[in-house]
């Protein structure tokens, strides 16, 4: 299969590597010049569970000309629209497009560029990190839950699911993936901004009663808004899932801490707590914790003069 990975950061590199290794033709698309130069010069340096140099093709999104069979979107949320604009010409009538970004509402952006029957939305618990330009850190295993928006459902994307499973990506076809996307958003909505704001690892933040009150209130706001939108969410099940994830990831700084505090980069807050606050305004549901956390993150971005 001919595949583009649109957004070759940590996750894009992981998926690109696994898909090419299993026999597909893969092109990585990215705009980070130092990363492009490193991969062109030396290949992708895989570290973590393995340590090897792996040759991969990488180019700027606007340089891609051949229509794709399959595109996986792996930008940060705030880069998604610009990426789709840059790759318009390689999205053909039969090109399937999968979005595995964290956060809410990406399908609305994708619909502007891709016909409904070719869109797949999903969520993944695979992880990856970038150590340096061209150097990715891959450890452990994961799974993907995805759903096709085609009226044919699973049948429309059988070849894609088979290709991803042959690459060891562990895809589960989910007939109702939206609650899983919201559940992951609750994980990010309770850990990412809070740890960035308190400069803490997940286990440190989750270590006080005050923090658990904040976590439960944020989840409550997500559930009120999601339920009003018709998403089937079980609040207690989500609280249990978030607590369990916090235990497993106790020793990690969430990606928003890495973006904002460690690397002084913009965050995905507007697509996590910010998305819930905006939906709340539209639905007439108060979401004061999500709104305040979004404002505090933007205030910190401004203090650090991040643009
Ligand atoms: N990392 C993880 O473990 C997981 C991430 N996700 C989600 O997947 C999506 C992609 O995340 P992820 O792969 O981690 O994103 P990364 O931050 O690794 O990369 C995203 C983009 O950011 C730019 N970039 C990254 N680092 C630098 C740098 N140091 N200097 C300049 N530009 C840089 C590049 O874009 P550009 O071409 O514009 O420069 C790159 O394509 C997000 O929605 C994330 O929330 C989901 C599950 C797990
Ligand atoms: C580690 C975890 C689960 C924390 O929210 C995550 O998804 C992230 O860092 O973005």
TrEMBL record:
Pathway: Cofactor biosynthesis; (R)-pantothenate biosynthesis; (R)-pantoate from 3-methyl-2-oxobutanoate: step 2/2
Superkingdom, taxonomy of origin: Bacteria
Keywords carried by this UniProt record: NADP, Oxidoreductase, Pantothenate biosynthesis
Any one GO MF annotation of this record: 2-dehydropantoate 2-reductase activity
Ketopantoate reductase C-terminal domain boundaries: 177-301
The protein's Enzyme Commission number: 1.1.1.169
GO biological process, alphabetically ordered: pantothenate biosynthetic process
Catalysed reactions listed for this entry: (R)-pantoate + NADP(+) = 2-dehydropantoate + NADPH + H(+)
InterPro entries (UniProt xref): 6-PGluconate_DH-like_C_sf, 6PGD_dom2, ApbA, Ketopantoate_reductase, KPA_reductase, KPR_N, NAD(P)-bd_dom_sf
GO cellular component terms listed in the entry, alphabetical order: cytoplasm
Pfam family for this entry, one: ApbA
Domain Ketopantoate reductase N-terminal: start-end pairs: 3-149
Reported function: Catalyzes the NADPH-dependent reduction of ketopantoate into pantoic acid.
Entry's family note: Belongs to the ketopantoate reductase family.
Protein name per Swiss-Prot or TrEMBL: 2-dehydropantoate 2-reductase
Organism: Amygdalobacter nucleatus
Lineage, opening ranks: Bacteria, Bacillati, Bacillota, Clostridia, Eubacteriales
């Amino acid at each position: 299969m001919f595949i583009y990975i649109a957004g070759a950061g940590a996750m894009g590199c992981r998926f690109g590597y696994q898909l090419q290794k299993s026999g597909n033709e893969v092109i990585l698309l990215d705009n980070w010049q130092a990363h492009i130069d490193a991969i062109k010069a030396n290949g992708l340096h895989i570290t973590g569970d393995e340590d090897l140099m792996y040759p991969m093709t990488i180019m700027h999104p606007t340089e891609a000309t051949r229509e794709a069979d399959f595109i996986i979107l792996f930008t940060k949320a705030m880069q998604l629209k610009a990426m789709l604009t840059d790759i318009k010409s390689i999205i053909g009538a039969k090109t399937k497009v999968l979005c595995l970004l964290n956060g809410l509402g990406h399908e609305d952006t994708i619909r502007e560029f891709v016909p409904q029957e070719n869109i797949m939305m999903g969520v993944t618990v695979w992880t990856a990190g970038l150590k340096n330009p061209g150097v990715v850190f891959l450890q452990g295993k994961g799974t993907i839950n995805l759903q096709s928006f085609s009226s044919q459902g699973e049948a429309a994307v059988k070849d894609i699911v088979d290709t991803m499973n042959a690459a060891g990506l562990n895809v589960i076809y989910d007939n109702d993936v939206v609650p899983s996307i919201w559940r992951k958003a609750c994980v990010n909505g309770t850990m990412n901004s809070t740890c960035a704001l308190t400069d803490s690892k997940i286990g440190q933040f989750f270590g006080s009663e005050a923090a658990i009150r904040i976590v439960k209130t944020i989840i409550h706001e997500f559930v009120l808004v999601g339920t009003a939108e018709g998403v089937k969410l079980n609040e207690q099940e989500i609280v249990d899932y978030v607590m369990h994830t916090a235990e497993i990831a106790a020793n990690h700084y969430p990606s928003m801490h890495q973006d904002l505090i460690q690397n002084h980069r913009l965050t995905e807050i507007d697509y996590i707590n910010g998305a819930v606050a905006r939906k709340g305004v539209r639905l007439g549901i108060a979401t004061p914790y999500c709104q305040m956390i979004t404002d505090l993150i933007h205030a910190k971005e401004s203090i650090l003069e991040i643009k």
